[in-house]
Amino acid sequence: MRRVTVFVNGTSKNGKVVAVYGTLTDLLSVATNKLGIKACHLYNGKGGLIDDIALIRDDDVLYVSEGDSFFDPQNDVRARDDRPGAHTDWLTLNIGGRLFTTTRSTLVSKEPESMLAHMFREKDVWGNKQDECGAYLIDRSPEYFEPILNYLRHGQLIINEGINLLGKVLTCRV
């Protein structure tokens, strides 16, 4: 049995050790399940595209991409832990020009049938648009959104003074 360590392309954190069995497609399927991404390509540490399972050796370190080119986690600027689109539970929302950072689980767990839950339950199912910094764009008022986000975090809806409740209700429906 061979085993390899797989990382999301461009990162060197949160790798998973997996057994290599069957075909390259089988390994991509295991990587998809372990890393929580849609694994399309495997690269070795030098950026070489792995296109045959026979090329993989025991204890290789492989980088899994969703179709993008190889990003060297040592040299590429995008390899920083805070890079936009890094595959973590953390994400940034650009709501009407104001940035909110939260976790994907905050957006999907408390109200699983909400629009936010549907938008962020699975990675990029909705083709969510991102700004130049990687924040997800949502065309809503930040003043109305902030109490909603706090509700999703803590379970209590606290309305700031001076906020129109009708605007809040309309924002919640989205």
UniProtKB/TrEMBL annotation:
It holds the Pfam family BTB_2. SUPFAM superfamilies: Doublecortin (DC) (SSF89837), POZ domain (SSF54695). One of its GO terms (molecular function) is cullin family protein binding. One of its GO terms (cellular component) is Cul3-RING ubiquitin ligase complex. Residues 91-161 form the BTB domain. CDD domains: BTB_POZ_KCTD9, KHA. PANTHER family: INSOMNIAC, ISOFORM B, POTASSIUM CHANNEL TETRAMERISATION DOMAIN CONTAINING PROTEIN. InterPro entries: BTB/POZ_dom, Doublecortin_dom_sf, KHA_dom, SKP1/BTB/POZ_sf, T1-type_BTB. It comes from Hucho hucho (huchen). It comes from the Eukaryota. GO terms for biological process: intracellular signal transduction; proteasome-mediated ubiquitin-dependent protein catabolic process; protein homooligomerization. Transmembrane segments: none annotated. This is Potassium channel tetramerization domain containing 9a. Residues 3-82 form the KHA domain.
